Amino acid sequence: MTFSLIARDPGTGMFGIGITTSSIAVGNRCPWVRAGVGAVTTQSRTDIRLGSRGLDLLESGLSAQQTVDQLVVESEFPERRQLAAIDRNGNVAYYCGPNITTLNSGFAGKNCVSTGNGLDNTEVPRKMVAYFEAASDVPFIARLLGAIDAGIAAGGEYGPVKAAALLVAHEHEWPLVDLRVDYEDEPEKKLRELWNLYEPQVEHYVTQVLRPNEIPASRF
Predict the structure, then answer these.
(1) DSSP letters for 96-143
(2) Which terminus of the chain has a smaller tally of CB atoms within 10 A, N or C?
(3) By residue range, what is the domain housing residue 51?
(4) How many domains does the chain have?
(5) Which residues of 144-167 are buried (b: 16+ CB within 10 A; e: fewer)?
(6) Strand 104-109 vs strand 112-117: parallel, antiparallel, or unpaired?
(7) Is 136 among the domain residues?
């Protein structure tokens, strides 16, 4: 029971995912990103193996649609899975297995795609995409958080969400942002609070990796 939005920022080349669910620790299982390659979500009776496999397929040159199609072929139980992908060119694709036991849907937009299961109504993914596309003046990562809020405002899941995650890749082999709320009431609010704390420090932690001698001794 999860809903998410995957997106690419054409201006920066960032890939990102905003995701929330009623299950614990969604950030450990469902969202996958790789700089310069794309992003994948694996949801509904989640097979965590499909995340890294999807990124490898994208990196090999397959399109988003080809990647999703191949994941369906390779999955042991594709009828239970929900998958989405975006490739380096911003092409998107999604798949909702016919035997997903809860209300589910997906919606593809420009440089973004949303999927959900355990939904209150099938409009949730469309509303998430609509927000993301309309908020073009909002910074990319803030738009991912806003898409989660839009999904909740549209009805979200049929029960309360308890976990949320924000995962973004840009230029480097590690995620630029990997923030998680693993099990809390109103996790989307706590995730935004985490981002507000982390945003001013993002470049500092990149510098720690690439140019540690530039960091003053007074900084940790």
Answers:
(1) E-TT-SS-EEEEEETTEEEEEESBSSTTHHHHHHHHHHH-TTS-HHHH
(2) C
(3) 2-214
(4) 1
(5) bbbbbbbbbebbbbeeebbbbbbb
(6) antiparallel
(7) yes
19: helix, coil or strand? strand
Domain assignment present for residue 62? The answer is yes
Residue 10: strand, helix, or coil: coil
CATH of the domain at 200: 3.60.20.10
Query: Tokens 């990149």 — which residue?
Result: 206
Instruction: Render each residue's pLDDT in the chain as its tens digit; 220 residues.
Output: 899 999 999 999 999 999 999 999 999 999 999 999 999 999 999 999 999 999 999 999 999 999 999 999 999 999 999 999 999 999 999 999 999 999 999 999 999 999 999 999 999 999 999 999 999 999 999 999 999 999 999 999 999 999 999 999 999 999 999 999 999 999 999 999 999 999 999 999 999 999 998 888 766 6
In a domain, 219, yes or no: no
Q: 120, 111, 114: which is closest to 96 by C-alpha?
A: 114
Q: Which residues, 6+ apart, have CB-to-CB distance to 181 below 8 Å?
A: 163, 164, 165, 187, 190, 191, 194
Residue whose C-alpha is closest to residue 45's, from 11, 70, 79: 79
Cβ-based neighbour number of residue 121 at 10 Å: 14
**Rounded CA gap, 86 and 84, in Å?**
7
